[in-house]
């Protein structure tokens, strides 16, 4: 069991309000990711859930019980810290058992738990070592072991992978996902890495300036972003944002001195909105080399002059300019080579998944 | 290793020579004290002050320890040595414990006004002894502790806490707050975290605090002479009395032996724990 309800949570440090009324409903067993740029309040929110930080107003409920005024100890939560925060003078095994010891768990049970956890995380051979004698990845495992041993209602992960090198990070990411599948315990996971957010989450809460911008599944967040900030933050390479003049229910794009009209999925909105310009949001993968099997009214052909080519391996990102802003297209490696030699490419632009934002507020127009 | 150029080698030799000279100047009094203490009184009068003793004569040492006169009494330094021990041990222990707890709170459990409180405590490091002599005498009298060992312990604890707090606070401030957070989530309380997480990390700074406090309190003369009674004088006061009490000729050998006896404990403490002292003072200065 471990459902969490966060209701109208605010937190101020002096005059600065870092959390401005957070509402989140986290289901039992859910893998929730809090993601956002640094300073968005995600770590404060996590510390508030843990009870390490007092809140200014609002409530936190775990399994329906209001825990807002309870100490961290009474909340039955375990946390994995960014710095791991292993006790430097204790052996790995005591690091894992310390929480149980403090909770007066019988000795035999502690020993069994330490054995089980260390086997699960494959750290049995490290049990007698001190944290200083471990590598980064091993420390990470021990920190997880310490959290696991307690068998809490909720796990909190505070950017646990950010101190690992790129390869290890990907490995541990998969391992954490497997672990969640196996244990089924609720996880709240803070990260600023949108790839981690997409790959791990059941649901993602995208935060900015102390507010939740959008709360939804990775699919919803990626394909149906609530505003320009969310659309920009999620996805790599990022979504293209092109300010376009509105012409009836179509958008105008200028490339290499020529003007092209683009039809979009919800064109009728444009006709009634009475806006002179809007922001067209389109992901790079919807701008590709011509693929003959994709057809329809929303598939256009537009030229683009190539400024830079960045081969990524599986695909190649091509940079060019439309309407005076930089745009990125995702090409196959072969098309990338071809485009580079020619210096320009005729792109196939599919607007079926494109989204429209207000040019000033960044709000979604077509949602 | 990079080989040194000729001029660099010359500089190095020059520096070493200067350092050796300084060390000799510094050690000369100790040498004179030790050699003189083993000489007979005749040998001192007739011989060179820098000469080695002809025979190892320990009679001055036994006299200084057990039968030299300090004012009216002639029991040597022994009773006062034990007085000092009775003052120093509890005072060092108590001030170190309080300093450790203060430092733990001021670094890891910040509260509104904790920085001000720390600043105020630091101020205690700069109060000259003389300023508090009278008010402290009145306080001790009011507490009924005037001229007693507990009274002296109290004075030294109060004076020492400013320093020990500074030591521990600056040491603990380098320990990440996340450790406290992790321990709190693990279910440990204020004292459990101190005992299981902080205390095992504290050996170097405990050593610093103990050496510092031991040296300060053992060597203290002013408080010792003002707040002690006839039976509770510390060894520094007794040494002064011993040197100033003359029956017939001045016994330099006994004076020297007495001075070495009075200085010996601090020397021993430093020799035993000295390597931790430097380590502890520099710990936290460099991020590990």
Multimeric status of the protein: heterodimer
Shape summary of chain A: elongated
Using the 3D structure, state the CATH architecture of the largest domain in chain B.
Orthogonal Bundle
Which whole number gives the mean pLDDT of chain A? 92
What is the C-alpha radius of gyration of chain B, as a whole number of Å? 24 Å
- Separate helix tally of chain B: 13
According to CATH, the fold-level topology of the largest domain in chain A is: Rossmann fold
| End-to-end CA span of chain B | 25 Å
CATH superfamily placement of the largest domain in chain B: MetI-like
Order of helices and strands of chain B: HHHHHHHHHHHHH
Which class of secondary structure composition applies to the elements of chain B?
A: mainly alpha
Percentage of residues in DSSP E strands of chain A: 25-35%
The largest β sheet of chain A comes out as: 6 strands, mixed
General shape of chain B: flat
Descriptive report:
The complex is a heterodimer of chains A (367) and B (288). Chain A has 11 helices and 21 strands. Chain A has helices at 42-50, 72-75, 92-102, 107-120, 136-149, 166-183, 194-200, 218-223, 228-233, 267-273, 333-342; strands at 4-13, 16-26, 31-35, 57-62, 65-66, 77-80, 154-158, 186-191, 203-208, 211-216, 240-247, 250-255, 258-263, 277-282, 287-288, 299-305, 308-311, 316-322, 325-331, 344-350, 355-357. In chain A, the strands form 5 sheets. A 6-stranded mixed sheet of chain A has the order 6-7-8-3-9-10, sandwiched between helices. In chain A, strands 13-12-11-14-21 form a 5-stranded antiparallel sheet. Chain A has a 4-stranded antiparallel sheet with strand order 2-1-4-5, with helices on one face. In chain A, helix 3 (92-102) runs parallel beside helix 5 (136-149) and helix 4 crosses helix 5 (136-149). Chain A is elongated and about 75 Å long. Chain B is mostly helical. Helix content of chain B is 72%, strand content 0%. Chain B has 2 domains: 6-57, no CATH class; 78-282, Orthogonal Bundle (MetI-like fold). The interface between A and B is medium-sized, with 24 and 17 residues.
